[in-house]
Amino acid sequence: MIFVIYILLALGVIVFSVKLSFYVDELDKKTNVSGAFLGGVMLAAVTSLPELFTSIASTIFLDDVNLVYGNILGSNIFNLTIYGCLVLASTKAFNKAKVTSSHRNTLKLLLIMYGIIFTANLIDRDFTFFGVSFFSIAILVLYLKGAKKMSIDESSEGEEKSSSKLTVKQILIRFTFLSVGLIICSICITMVTDEIARQLNLGVTLAGALLLGIATSLPELTSSIALVKKGNFNAMTGNILGSNLFNCGILFLVDIMYIKGSLYQSSTQQGFLLIIFGFICTIVTYGMLKIKYELGKTTENTKGSSIPYALASLTIVLSYITYVIMSI
Fold first, then answer.
1. How many angstroms separate the CA atoms of 54 and 186, rounded?
2. Which phi and psi (to 5°) does residue 161 adopt?
3. pTM of the model as a whole
């Protein structure tokens, strides 16, 4: 019965997140707010709401930071696995698509964040400012820097007019109610995941990475597939990487709420595996986008050059599979 509840809650997360993404897109079409900000920052934040509230629930109700680590870092590596699978399934289309250089800047910030998290867990000693870790403050600064860069990205996929008859006020009202529904589902799925972990004798970090990480990444999966079908690989890339950046930023909020000790405790083996494989997937993704940029500069005819993208994507997918095997 507990697994049926988990599946129903996961479906609820998908439905609420997809509808929220739709209304963000409508706001993009109906307002003068920067499209890059709505897509790369706001849409990413919307699809990361499950990670945000499951992490808050894990901290406040379950008092378990390892579940938070598993949720956030597990979602990040699963998001990149989604990215790898989608590129692998459509290498020719990806080869021809335009992907802006701002995404590589986001990946650089993510690599630095992984370095901070690894260092914080390795030294097992925290330095705080009014109860908030300097590591968390550094992560927040990096997130804000990344969000600012994405918001001033001048790339455009072309303006579209909305076919919806809803006003901006009506969209915002529906957006608010859907957000509440998503929050409730996110908190409930955290409780259910904890119970499943107990029944199956799974480590909380592994349970967070697999059950929570996958469930809370379903919005990114759904929206990314829809964007790939439209051939919009640039927006798909921004959604995935923006979500990962936002996820890391969640650590700052969790650090404020966790008052029983340091958020950066000595991590378990599963926790270190998440950090290591997350770093590997991130740097491979950076390499893939760097290759795409360099090929775009040297030649306009990129026929036959999709092999590097296929190999990079396959590496990302195999890295995730390796993590799961080593963690079980």
1. 5
2. -95, 145
3. 0.80
2-153+166-327 belongs to CATH 1.10.3720.10: no
Residue 33: Cβ within 10 Å count:
12
Show the 3-state SS of the chain.
Answer: CHHHHHHHHHHHHHHHHHHHHHHHHHHHHHCCCCHHHHHHHHHHHHHCHHHHHHHHHHHHCCCCHHHHHHHHHHHHHHHHHHHHHHHHHCHHHHHHCCCCCHHHHHHHHHHHHHHHHHHHHHHCCCCEECCEEHHHHHHHHHHHHHHHHHHCCCCCCCCCCCCCCCCHHHHHHHHHHHHHHHHHHHHHHHHHHHHHHHHHCCCHHHHHHHHHHHHCCHHHHHHHHHHHHCCCHHHHHHHHHHHHHHHHHHHHHHHHHCCCCCCCCCCCHHHHHHHHHHHHHHHHHHHHHHHHHHHHHHCCCCCCCCHHHHHHHHHHHHHHHHHHHHHC
pLDDT at residue 206 tops 70: no
**Helix, strand and coil in the chain, % to nearest 5:** 80, 0, 20
- Per cent of the chain over pLDDT 90 is 19
Gap between the Cα atoms of 286 and 160, Å rounded: 30
For the segment 221-233, the average pLDDT, to the nearest whole number, is 81
Place of tokens 């090929």: 295
**CA atoms within a 13 Å half-sphere pointing along the CA-CB vector of 72:** 28
pLDDT (0 to 100) of residue 149: 76
Question: Pick from 92, 160, 54, 101: which is nearest to 305 by CA?
Answer: 92
